[in-house]
Design goal:
The chain has helices at residues 43-52, 65-73, 128-140, 160-163, 190-202, 234-246, 280-298, 306-317, and strands at 78-81, 95-98, 107-109, 115-118, 146-148, 173-174, 206-208, 215-219, 224-228, 257-264, 267-274, 319-321. By secondary structure, it is of the alpha+beta class. The strands form two sheets. The protein has a six-stranded mixed β-sheet with strand order 5-3-4-2-1-6, with helices on one face. Strands 7-8-9-11-10-12 form a six-stranded mixed β-sheet. Strand 3 and strand 4 form a beta hairpin. Helix 6 packs across helix 7 (280-298). The protein is globular and about 60 Å long. The chain starts with 42 loop residues before the first helix and ends with a strand.
Length: 323
């Protein structure tokens, strides 16, 4: 075993950066604080921890948290108009959240000054909200007609919760394709048209249900699915689902089956298999009826029965973590 570094009681070297901050240098370089140790073994430890520390629920506190998760993980093509605290800056007619942007750009400032913010990009830190907020702030001041590159958000930078209006609406519009990328898709250049065709061919047909919150029907070659992002605390929700499953009331009708759930950004996403002939409209009423059964099950406080515990174990075994 490696020996521990002895602790000294002497005064610690003071940072040289402005405001007491230690500037970032190469991992193997001497730490700027003057300790004589390499940066990675000194102040770089805290910096690395800050970068990699995962925020479990990055969209918590935002209007439509469940839909934020769905658009980040489940929906191919969708847009949402965003409202900023204090209103839009001069020269920015609109800010739109988009699931994906062309070339996987983090953001785009269009020729007319409007801003598109991409949601499904990789982010360099463990706080998606802070990284997206940093990208949005830079997009608001970018030159019209230019994309915005990704970067690690500065420590302590604002998060989306600091920039977006807390009482603003969050109403996703699900699209059948990515024509929203360009103002005039019908007259796009051959290169842009080819890019759109490739993106559209890979998009799974998806529909947002109107009768319940954050539930999305999607079509696949073999069967259809309903994926429903729910705001309830995970353990409590799994107990309620187990009660319904054990009672034989967890399905959405004949031929449907609750098959498991995803875990994404701190929320749970139950998933049902649906027959290929069951479309989004046909599942609206069964989903609304299930929401009533679930509310009743969530209100039960008695311990699970042995049969319900077995049902819960089966659901937990079929849970997949997306983030």
């Amino acid at each position: 075993m490696a020996k521990k570094r002895p602790q000294t009681k002497g005064s610690r070297p003071q940072p040289h950066g402005a405001g007491g901050e230690v500037p970032v240098v190469g991992a193997r370089e001497a730490c700027p604080c003057g300790s004589g140790r390499r940066y990675k073994a000194c102040h770089g430890r805290a910096a690395a921890h800050a970068v990699t520390e995962l925020v479990q629920r990055p969209f918590e506190g935002l209007p439509g948290e469940c839909d934020w998760v769905a658009l980040r993980e489940l929906v191919p093509a969708a847009t949402v108009e965003l409202a900023l605290k204090g209103g839009l800056p001069e020269g920015v007619p609109s800010v739109t959240l988009a699931t994906v942007l062309p070339m996987a750009w983090p953001a785009l400032r269009r020729d007319d000054g409007s801003v598109l913010l991409g949601l499904q990009n990789d982010t360099p830190s463990g706080d998606i909200s802070r990284d997206l907020a940093d990208t949005l702030q830079r997009a608001l001041v970018a030159e019209p007609g230019t994309p915005v590159e990704g970067r690690r958000a500065p420590s302590g930078a604002p998060r989306l919760q600091d920039l977006l209006a807390a009482d603003g609406p969050f109403a996703p519009v699900v699209h059948s394709g990515f024509e929203f990328w360009v103002p005039d898709a019908e007259n796009a250049t051959p290169e842009v048209a080819a890019s759109l065709e490739r993106a559209n061919s890979a998009a799974i047909p998806t529909v947002k249900l109107a009768g319940v919150d954050a539930a999305y029907w999607c079509e696949t070659p073999e069967k259809n699915h309903l994926r429903w992002v729910m705001p309830h605390e995970e353990e409590h929700l799994l107990d309620a689902l187990a009660r319904l499953h054990a009672a034989g009331t967890s399905s959405l009708g004949e031929g449907t089956r609750l098959v498991g759930s995803f875990r994404a950004h701190g929320l749970t996403v139950p998933v049902w298999d649906l027959p290929s002939e069951v479309g989004a409209e046909e599942i609206e009423k069964p989903a609304a009826e299930f929401a009533e059964r679930l509310a009743a099950a969530l209100a039960v406080t008695e311990p699970l029965t042995p049969e319900e515990r077995r049902a819960r174990g089966g659901l937990t075994n079929r849970q997949v973590t997306l983030s």
